[in-house]
Amino acid sequence: MNDLDRELDAALARLRDEALPESALALVRAGVREQIEGGRRKRIWTAWLSLAAAAAVAWIALAIPWTASTLRLASPRAPEVASIALARPASPMTAGSSGAVRQEARLKPGRSLKAAPPRGALSRSAALEKVRSEGRATPPEPAREEQTQFMRIITDDPNVVILWAMNSKGETR
Amino acid sequence: MALASITDGLAWGSESKEAALERLMGLHERLVLRTAWRMLGNREDAEDAAQEVFLRLYRHLGNVDEVSVESWLYRTTMNVCYDVLRRRPKTGELLVEPSHAPDAGAAIEEGEKRSLLEAGLKRLTPQERAAVVLCSIEGLSSAEAALALGVSEGTVRSHLSLARTRLKEYVGRFWR
């Protein structure tokens, strides 16, 4: 080891013994304390916000089912079966039978969609046979009574009276 | 120099984290600030780095082994300094010759020697500077420095040898 090496080692060792300014140390301490305190405040706020969010979620979770049940009680839903049955067009072959089925569905408003027999479960001939037999057993509901209004028009001739009949469909005679 | 035994009074399980941190800062703040200052070359960056080191100590207080706090602080200080150096824009500042460099051959004062040495340290790579700071300034062994830097002893010795050669080349022009 030559002189330069020794001199370098001595200079480096002196760097270690150099006093650090107290102001720098104080700044470090103050900065650390401030950041820790700030972090603690932030954690407290975060905890409060989390608590408030959890309370809001819980309130919503309770309020939604209650509101839904209240609304359900206030307005009972109309039976869906009748409308669905009307929406299905009837083929000409089974027009009479499907009409009978529709009538049956209309007569049982409490019947749900799930309870309806699956589509295509019976063959066409079997279905026709079944409907015919049911039709025999339980006669279809009589057609709605057609209301016909008569208008009597009296002319000058006492022997001539005009009767103008108009049914509910608007057909006149 | 072996790592100082610091087991006395470090049982922070019985005291609050804040109190433990205050005591550890009192014990080790000079070590951390000095190391960061030598690594980064200026006071402001060194203060910021030292703050970051103690904040990390606060966060990991429960995980730091009582016996190896000093080693942990060296390692964390080096990591923080590396981060700062990585973020620092490359302005070429480290390669500027000192404006007050004396003429070669003239007798120089102790203060001038120190300034030249600091300028020489700034010209080293971060790894070489870390090896010099830990081994030649802080007095750690190669093994302790390797532990702090997370590299092998051989790497530390290699960096140290290279750094000393470059430092001697630089300061030798003025010191003789």
Task: Provide an overview of this structure.
The complex is a heterodimer of chains A (173) and B (176). Chain A is mainly alpha-helical and 173 residues long. Chain A is built from 5 helices and 2 strands, in the order αααααββ. Helices cover 60% and strands 7% of the residues of chain A. Chain A has a two-stranded antiparallel sheet with strand order 1-2. In chain A, a hairpin with a 6-residue loop joins strand 1 (149-154) and strand 2 (161-166). Chain A is rod-shaped, with a radius of gyration of 46 Å. Residues 82-87 and 95-105 of chain A have low confidence and may be disordered. Chain B folds into 2 domains: 14-88, Rna Polymerase Sigma Factor, Chain: A, CATH 1.10.1740; 96-176, Winged helix-like DNA-binding domain superfamily/Winged helix DNA-binding domain (Arc Repressor Mutant, subunit A). Chain B is built from 7 helices and no strands. Chain B has helices spanning 17-40, 43-59, 69-87, 110-122, 126-137, 142-149, 153-175. The radius of gyration of chain B is 18 Å and the shape is globular. The chains are: A mainly alpha (173), B mainly alpha (176).
- What shape does the CA trace of chain A take? rod-shaped
Order of helices and strands of chain B: HHHHHHH
By oligomeric state, this entry counts as: heterodimer
Q: Write out the CATH superfamily name of the largest domain in chain B.
A: Winged helix-like DNA-binding domain superfamily/Winged helix DNA-binding domain
What is the name of the CATH topology of the largest domain in chain B?
Arc Repressor Mutant, subunit A
Mean of all residue-level pLDDT scores of chain A: 73
Can you list the strand order of the major beta sheet of chain A? 1-2
Number of self-contained structural domains of chain A? 3
Q: Specify the helix fraction band of chain B.
A: 55-70%
Count the DSSP helices of chain B: 7
What general form of chain B does the structure show?
globular
Task: Write the H/E string of chain A, N to C.
Answer: HHHHHEE
What about the largest sheet of chain A? 2 strands, antiparallel
Q: Tell me the structural class of chain B.
A: mainly alpha
The portion of residues forming beta strands of chain A comes to 5-15%
Low-confidence parts of chain A: 82-87, 95-105
Which chain pair shows the most residues in contact?
A: A-B, 23 and 35 residues
What value does the average pLDDT of chain B take?
A: 82
Q: What is the tally of beta strands of chain A?
A: 2
Number of strands of chain B: 0
Give the proportion of residues in helices of chain A. 55-70%
